[in-house]
């Protein structure tokens, strides 16, 4: 049961799907930061909202209007950095080791030493029997073809 589960997990599709979910979650942070930091201030030109951070204002009229039209680049930069860190960690901690394991399985490096062939085994048995025959004197055996017995 556990071997089947392990085989299921080691298929490339499941691992790739898990990586895609993690990277997709991190990418969602970039999209959210983009919309709240750049798109939202463009819309806020016509309305009012308060945001502060690294960026610039679209208008310098009043403080209330300045706050609502402020393009906050800091949260976008933070989201990009977050995405790059998550993607790098997932790649180096999960994807590369799993890929190396799958490559080893394909190459057969984990198979171990090759088993001897039938001919090699028979030659080894013959040599052992010949060595035994030289060491021990022959023992008398009953021959069933002998009519005297």
UniProtKB/TrEMBL annotation:
- Name where it's found: Cell membrane
Q: How does it sit in the membrane?
A: Multi-pass membrane protein
Which GO cellular component terms are attached? plasma membrane
InterPro entries in the record? Mechanosensitive_channel_CS, MS_channel, MSC/AndL, MscL_channel
Keywords assigned: Cell membrane, Ion channel, Ion transport, Membrane, Transmembrane, Transmembrane helix, Transport
Q: Does the keyword rRNA-binding apply?
A: no
Which residues lie within the region annotated Disordered? 130-149
Location, primary (coarse class): membrane
Q: Where, by residue number, does the polypeptide cross the bilayer?
A: 12-34, 76-98
Q: Which Pfam families match?
A: MscL
Q: Name one GO molecular function term.
A: mechanosensitive monoatomic ion channel activity
The answer, when asked if Metal-binding is one of the entry's keywords, is: no
State the source organism's domain of life.
Bacteria
* Entries under PANTHER family matching the protein: LARGE-CONDUCTANCE MECHANOSENSITIVE CHANNEL, MECHANOSENSITIVE CHANNEL MSCL
Q: What is the purpose of this protein?
A: Channel that opens in response to stretch forces in the membrane lipid bilayer. May participate in the regulation of osmotic pressure changes within the cell.
What's this protein's family per the entry?
Belongs to the MscL family.
Oligomeric and partner information: Homopentamer.
Protein's recorded name: Large-conductance mechanosensitive channel
Q: What is the lineage of its organism?
A: Bacteria, Bacillati, Actinomycetota, Actinomycetes, Pseudonocardiales
